């Protein structure tokens, strides 16, 4: 079965979890109305469902063969990409000066979820172009912007991020690609890059590579890295000195070509500096932060799709009888299948909430809130990326499990979601790197005030549930409060460890800390949605989705948030292994 | 990298976790000595490492093509199978009357772990033959035994389990295959079966199918199912009326042919009844219980293999610097990588302990302990199957994560382990079915006395750690005690729900209950191993594996056992969703 964008649920999350109504009322989003926003989501949903989603299995089966340096995308992809850019989707939140529509990132976040639910392999190409647009907008010269931004915003050309080399993955200080000034303002780039997503393809006439390389005599390590724009075709129409030298045979996202790139076989590819010399990493981080949130949204999208497929199957497949049933029951009526489906749905909704709240912070950074919004988004970005992609692995695996033996058979499609999802916790900074980023760089923001403000916002959700007092919430308030208090204590522990110069103690618990953060933040998001629904029910609305949201928040609190106490113990009292680890791994 | 059977660690677990020393001292295992047992493990390890392990990737790449009804196994498999059966491994714990070696199941369990670590796809064929041997031994007529057991025990022929039909998976009451008496003592079988592992192959001259089918006028449901032995070639050498009609394209275990089987295209395949008419399910359960423990051991095996590969990679790959390091560090020195590797190792060792303790119960059933041993094994079998295969999914996924981007590239092999492992939680009864079996059939054994005795045995491990008092245990005793008390309370809740005729309340928490059971039992197993090592250290032994076992038990207690409290809450207070599930899944 295919994907149907859950537009009503997404709009509800935007409005009542991520504060779209408030943002619009405050005037921070210009003349955008709720009706506009919903109309955009509906149209995006139509394109995702009917144009992109049908490509997903085709991409998995055909892959992207490489012959003589030319990569062919799967059947139908070129036409779909053309339809998609002609709809203006590529530049949805890009600057109007360069042809963008200047819409809030929050709206774009919801759309990105849809493209990637429809096909991660397809959605990945514009995801990278968007990162390049941001880097170029922030750091590019006026000449480079004039030459490239318009075509990138329209999607007529795509872009890549060329970071990784065989010896330099998470650790970019080790990279060796070189750049030399050519004397005419351009540079000659030589080196080999690996894992370059859409490094070569046939969707567009040109590809704009953003490449990290070292200048001669640059300082060692990450302070000697510069960022260059290196197009496949030069402004004069000639082919640049770069090529795709190989393509990976991967577990998933077969529709997305993962290329090895060779720059400078014939003396050096021509490139232009973006930003200052030796400041390339800072420029690259501009695009990586945006990309990280979008990877989180890929996780939400594929989790949603896996959930939809599993639910459809569970309603159709009959096995066994539930208590008192007279005939064979659809498996959706069995408690263990319900637990799996609700786990899938609840984690997906929690991750969606976290990603949207992160996007809201980025929008707020451009409004009256300014830096505080940006800091909030910075804090939440590693949580959005890692939590949403960790649960994507769990949810897609549960999707296989709901299908039973059929889940292991490739024709069913459930296994593809699991294979496709598996890259998300790895690329754009492994989830281990995200946890380190959260603990060592984000918790200390403003002396801890940013994280404390975030915890305070979660506590308001608990107060809301207590005040609402609908019996359908069950133990929701108690469990959410316990999780937030666990997060608060774990946060104090981490800040104290960092403050007393014991980074190893903080690092040892970074991964369970991030999970705890995501669990609690996700619980607060679900509670907010449920509170809005409870208010609507009290106001006489009868949409069954309202009661469903309360039941979902309760399930999450009573069955998933309960992990918080154990995670806190792991963060605070579980770090002794760093001293004995070598020993325990020795035998 | 390939697999190296961890023979010393396995022998230590057999002796000090599963009580091999005690069993030998008690005389329950005949004249077997520790030296014999270790010699067998060493030789099995040699065969697993050098003969089978190299086939694993070959099997994944070549698969098992079907042409004109003939399935071809991957290059090298036939020769390896020949070598393996010539070593006598197939009949290790089969009865000497039929050519078996009559060794304890405990020894065979360790060997099964090795074959499957070397290649699940390879190990699966003898796993099914072993189940058929058990069913035939327990329920077959003397004539059938005389005709088939010898060749099955030697491995000259293999066997299959033909249960599933498209409409009948977990629910065998729905099956439709038919059997009619032929008047000469044999039956004519017609019907279609799916998911038949090694239903057709070229490893042996004959294949013995055990097939579930209905006699005419048999009662509806599971009380009208009979079990038949239906060989590919009949005793007179003629081909039976059955064929492989298709083969599945699967996520993993590509080296193992998963066949659709058609019986009776030309009037009916000839078969012979095993056991009594309409009692086929009881006979099949004989083989399924053995098979379930062995599937648990497949989980242990592949988890061990994934761990070994990840550890090797992490020692080799250098990225980033640890605190105070002057040059780039191997990633095994980073705290988050250590956490992943220790999680992999600790879960694997815990699952190994649970499986071995289950096998010990089966051996004890044949000795002076009798029924109590069998009841203990019955209780633990669903835990062994489900916990070991759930952690196999988690451990193999962590194995991919440790490799970073390399883990997503198929050539590395880490992804294959994850793909191969994914079937384990599904076949031989999904893990949801295992949880239901544990709660509704196993907890009530002897009025709850069996589970209480098991919990009491776990408590002795806590007392041991408290008495040992080595500082290296850290919080081990406290965390293990808390987990066991959580298990005790959750057990009381489940028994009370069953006793007061509220099966839905028990079923709602069955899956977290099983996880809690496995976590606590696994913690007790690791503590037992660590206690034996602590005693050895106090006695002056210097093997570094001793300190490593204590560190591992501590890591498990402080970082994984801490999940117990949340699981208890989910079991006891999380079941409201069964009432609201339809609602929450509706929107």
UniProtKB/TrEMBL annotation, chains A, B:
| All copies of domain Acyl-CoA dehydrogenase/oxidase C-terminal, residue ranges | 278-438
Domain of life according to the entry: Bacteria
Q: Where is the Acyl-CoA oxidase/dehydrogenase middle domain?
A: 161-264
Give the required cofactors.
FAD
Q: Do you know which SUPFAM superfamilies this protein is assigned to?
A: Acyl-CoA dehydrogenase C-terminal domain-like, Acyl-CoA dehydrogenase NM domain-like
The protein in question is named 3-methylmercaptopropionyl-CoA dehydrogenase
Q: In which family does this protein belong, per the annotation?
A: Belongs to the acyl-CoA dehydrogenase family.
Key word Lipid metabolism present in the record? Answer: no
Q: Where is the Acetyl-CoA dehydrogenase-like C-terminal domain?
A: 463-575
Keywords in alphabetical order: FAD, Flavoprotein, Oxidoreductase
Organism, scientific name? Methylobacterium iners
Chain's gene name: dmdC_1
Q: What's one Pfam family the UniProt record gives for this protein?
A: Acyl-CoA_dh_N
* InterPro entries recorded: Acyl-CoA_dh-like_C_dom, Acyl-CoA_Oxase/DH_mid-dom, Acyl-CoA_Oxase/DH_mid-dom_sf, AcylCo_DH-like_C, AcylCo_DH/oxidase_C, AcylCoA_DH/ox_N, AcylCoA_DH/ox_N_sf, AcylCoA_DH/oxidase_NM_dom_sf
User: Domain Acyl-CoA dehydrogenase/oxidase N-terminal spans what residues?
Assistant: 35-156
